[in-house]
Here is the input.
Amino acid sequence: MGQGLSDRALAWLFVGPTILLLLAFNIFPLIWTLWLSFTNFRANRPGADVLWVGLGNYSRVLNDEAIWENMRATAHFLSCSITLQLLLGFGLALMLNRRFRSHSFWSTAILLPMMLAPAVVGTFWKYFFEPQYGIFNYIVNFFGSPGTFTMLGDTKLSPWAIVLVDTWMWTPYVMLLLLAGLRSIPPYLYEAAEIDRASEWTKFWRITLPMVMPFIILAVLFRLIENFKMFDLVDQLTNGGPGSVTELASIKLKREAFEKWRTGYSSALAIILFVAIYGLSLVTVRFLDRVKQR
Amino acid sequence: MKNTVHSPLEPTPRGKTLAGAVVIGYALISLIPLVWILMTSFRTPQDAIAYPPQVITQPSLIGYVNLFTTRSRVSSQELAALPPAATWYEDLVREQQMILAGPSRFSDRYLNSVLIGFGSTLLSVILGTLAAYAFSRFRVPGKDDLLFFILSTRMMPPIAVAIPIYLMYRAVGLSDTHLGLILLYTVVNLSLAVWLLKGFMDEIPREYEEAAMVDGYTRFQAFIKVVLPQAATGIATTAIFCLIFAWNEYAFALLLTSGTAQTSPPFIPTIIGEGGLDWPAMAAGTTLFLLPVLVFTVLLRKHLLRGITFGAIRK
Here is the structure.
């Protein structure tokens, strides 16, 4: 057989363009960012002398109290939104798994929010949160909150506004993953439990939860990565405000890099964030492997 | 617990009803924002900021007219002196004490979204199909490492990549060009395309191509004539996912474009800024922007899980 190109040549021909593009648009920029992070370069002053500052940018980032505020805001956002999405998503998946009539229609309906553009979602939720005429504020007022309720202008409530909208958007995602987990449980496990007259409660804790656990961790992994990177929704919804209470690490990065034009400093911040995401993902993957082995 | 006779996998009728009620309740509540935006797009600017918010209002197309036009305010005397309006939308504009000044930039931005979306999708699907086939069928040195590397490119925060890309594009003149965004979105989508398509390729039995090659096809011909038709569903699914990502992308579009190549997501929020808070026009733009994605989601529903997990879960 095989006239024409050898399989080996074809393999390189097929994989080559993808690898080249990724090198040009990911690895090369990463190395460039790394180099910039050791300099005092400013993108808005291309002509100025570029000085090597060593680890100066890194120590400035890590000693900056404001950065730690951003990290706290990010941690709050990540932990609260992911916990809520897990609880709601798992509840919905358990209900959908009972396969009531029309369940597939309603599951598609529930999935819609997660496919939308986060920036546009942020924009229209801003409209719902308008203190004078927003529908969300109206409903809250209707159920008896003090007359001057405002969600986005309040330093206590604003962090919860981004959690709420993110949860609205991404609960379907977690639901879909966990539903796949529930459907992967072999029926004989429940049949055996039935013979042993195990209670529903026992079945849930001894069969359902352990079997779905890998899917839960996978959901946490995907949400961690996505929400750590997340920029568009918050940029539109609160733009980091009021003050900087919802200024997540990604928003801070954008301000430093593209508003204050501290390119070297923001490159150091970018590298630190990338390492953090990478580290968090590795820990989660390890954990996933451990759970799978059990 | 009460002992029932139903099969362990078949919930009781009451359990099913309860489950249905919970799910439908959640679905209805979570759809309110989308319905509200659709309704707002048919309101007048006055109705859109009424307090208490009105559910049912006299439907109006002002939002859509304002979305596609720019207008300027005139005095009532000037308005009275004008000849009668030639079109229905001009009438609507004059009712607001304004005259038409010209088209808005919305259709340009929408067209940019379409061009850049389809352009980048085409490229990433072509490159992704080739790479996925090679990874699925050939012995590629360091295959697992390469695949993991491809996946890990997705972990970079877009803003972090945007710093060097911004400098790079400024140096080679790709800032604010269609080609610049098309290339960038192609690369971002490559990881998804390769991983998803590799999964689909793995499911096509090798025997098909081997039989074709016994019949005298070269490997490349077998790939084109046998594998590609078999992978059509997978390719279409992947294409829709890439298209939706490119359609929805905001961070790169915001930072790397300003005019010529700007897409809809950074543009829609700025509609509000023109002449006060024009929520119906913003809602109209949002509706037109979200509609294609809603249609695609319904088409994709069977493959959604696979797409959002990069092919990790196939079911």
Residues 106-137 of chain B form the longest helix (32 residues).
